[in-house]
Amino acid sequence: MLTYEAPAVVLPLVSANEILGALVVIRKKKFARREISSIQVVADLAAISLRRAILLRQSEERRQELEQLLRERDETLRIISHDLRNPLQTIALTAASLDKPDLDADRTTLHEIIKRSAAGMNRMIQDLIDHATIEQGRGLPLNPQRHEAECLVKEVCEMAKIQAEAKAVDVRHEVHGNATVFVDRDRLSQVLTNLVDNALKFTPRGGAILVQSKVTDHEVEFSVSDTGPGIRESDQSRIFEPYWQAESTRQLGIGLGLAIAKSIVEQHGGRIWVESAEGRGSRFVFTIPAKPENN
Hints:
Blueprint: E1 6-15, E2 18-31, H1 33-98, H2 107-135, E3 145-148, H3 149-166, E4 170-176, E5 180-183, H4 185-202, E6 208-216, E7 219-226, H5 233-236, H6 257-267, E8 272-276, E9 282-291
Parallel strand pairs: 4-6
Antiparallel strand pairs: 1-2, 3-5, 5-9, 6-7, 7-9, 8-9
Helix pairs in contact: 1-2, 2-6, 3-4, 4-6
């Protein structure tokens, strides 16, 4: 506090040992010391009021943040319940059909439907487990070994064939250059499968999906392109966030696949991104450090 007569007074606003601002009083006539003491009282009261306002605002922000988290939790649980119920009903109905004595349908086809539905449920549950591991700050367990990039691409396309044929979508693969990658095979297949499954969700009947691998300088570039509706530019920066989904696609999954794919790629020392434009399809790309076959 100033202890001499002056035409201006600057007093800090302090509350709970924290400086919140300053009170500045200026006039032509100099202040007497007793006036400064009175202004100090005003500054102390102002600091208390300011701190209360800050605490109230923080409390309101925390309340709103908690409400938002609860809404997101409820929405996620609703989507999970919906998405798990669909394949479960399919399994139940198909299994009931197998018990009919006058069954005309191909039992092999019905068994395939049950297996595919069960695999979908298992993948969704595994996504939740993987995301919980990532959220705890731990990387996913990896067992990296040398694998041919071409084999990984072909394998994923082969697994998508039945689902693609059901939607009349053409799934093709192209391999440019021979290379091996030092990766966890199951995890890299998980990334590719997730990208292909997403492409199948958004590609209309009669559309096409292209899965590619290309050797570049010191890395292999994998990509999955589709002829779907594309992604708005304003949404592209958020699609790798956990649980985030565009308004138009909220019924098509729980929104964890891309976030997990990003974590897996980055654990392998790679990068992942999307190239898209509305009405012109999407191309998801990720890179993995390469180990050429002649090394």
